[in-house]
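[Q] Does anyone have a clean C-alpha cell version of this?
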Amino acid sequence: AKEMAVVTHHRLKQMDGTLKPDPDAELTEPLILRPTSETIIGDAFSRWIKSYRDLPLKLNQWANVVRWEMRTRMFLRTAEFLWQEGHTAHADEADAMEETMWALEMYRSVVEDVMAIPVICGEKPENERFPGAERTYSIEAMMQDGKALQAGTSHYLGTHFAEAQNIRYQDKEGGQTLCHTTSWGTSTRLIGGMIMTHGDDDGLRTPPAMAPRQIVIVPMLRGKPEDAELKQYCADLVAELNKGWALGSPMRAYLDIKDARPADKRWDWVRRGAPLICEIGPRDAANGQVTFIKRNALREGEKIKSHSVARADFVAQAPGLLETMQQELFAEAKARTESNIRDGFSTFADLERYYGTDDESGEFKGWARVCWSRPTGAALEDVGNRLKALKLTIRNAPLKQPASFGACIFTGQPAVEEILIARAY
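[A] Here you go.
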C-alpha cells in the first residue's frame, strides 16, 4: 500500500489560482497503478490454465511500473521505471523451484558475464521476502562506496497466489489441483549499478560486452583537403573491424566525424566510457598505424596512456583487447568486493562498534559476514529493529556456505548459516 499510486481524476482545472483535480472529471472507479504484475498475471493464469497439459506456462514481459517513491534516486529508485518480469505456473513445487533457480542463475550470468559486476547469490531471510512468497532469492552487488545493490530477485510463490486467484488445473486423475507459481524480475537499476561499479573520476567505464560502440574512431580533421583521405582511411578501418567478432558477437566500431574539435570528441567518448578510443591523424594514416587509448586503463599516473600499433595488428588484436578489458573490469570489481567483506564478528556489540561510528568518521565500511540461527517471529523483528538503528539490512544468505558455524550474533544460539549484512541503496 505504501508504494501504490491511485488515480481518482482524469483532468486538472485551475481553481483559486492553482491546478486541482476537476470535480467533473472524477473516475467512476479509481485506477490503481500497479507496482508489480502478480495480480494481473494471476488473473490471466486463472483463465488460461485448465489442464495439466497447459503446464508449465511461462511468461516474460517488459513493462513500465509506477511506485510512490518519496525519495527518488536516478536509475536506482524512480517513480516510474522499466521493469523486466517473468511469471510462471507449474504442476508441482519441484518444477517451480527449478524455474526459480534457473532465473536466479540467468540474472547472475547477465550481470557478471555481460555487465562485469560480481554478485553474490543467496536466499533472503523471512522478513525480506517478497510478500506472499515461500522463498525469495537475490543477487547482491557491492558498489564502490561499500553499499549493496539488489540487482535481481527470483521468488518461489508456492500456492499462495494460486489460492488467492484460483489458479488451478485438472490433473491426470481428473481432480482440480493448485498451481505452484514463480515470479522474477530486474529493472533499469542495473544501469545505475554498472555506473557505480565501474565509473571513475573521468566518467563511465562501460564493459565491452555492454558498450553499444566498443571501438570509436576519431579522425583528427583540420578542415583541409587531405581530410578526405584521412576519412577514407578511418572508414576502411571501421569496416574491417566490424567484420570481426569479440565476446560472442560482431564487434561494434563507430566513426565519429561530427563537427567538433578532436580533443572535445575524445573526452566526450571518455566520459561515455567507450572501451577503445582511437585518435587517428594524417601521420597515422600515412604510416598505416592506429593510435588508441584503453578506457579501463586510461592513465599512467596523471598522464593519458596511449598505444600505437600497425593497422593490421590493431585489427587482429582488437577482439582480444576487448575480451581482456571485460575480464579486467570484472576482476577489479571482484577483488574490491572480496576485500571489503569482513568476518570475525562474534557478538552484535562487535557489529555496533564496527558500523556505529561510520557516519561520524566517514570511513569506508563494506559488508559483514556473520553467523545466525534464522530466528522467526518477534525475535526476527527484534533483529530487524537492531539493524535498522545502524542503517543496516540483511542482504541474503549466500548459496555457498561453510561446513560449520559458530554462534548466532543476535541470539547466541547455534547458527545454521552465514548471512551478509550491509547498508544498501
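[Q] Thanks! Anything notable?
[A] The first strand starts at residue 5 and ends at 9.
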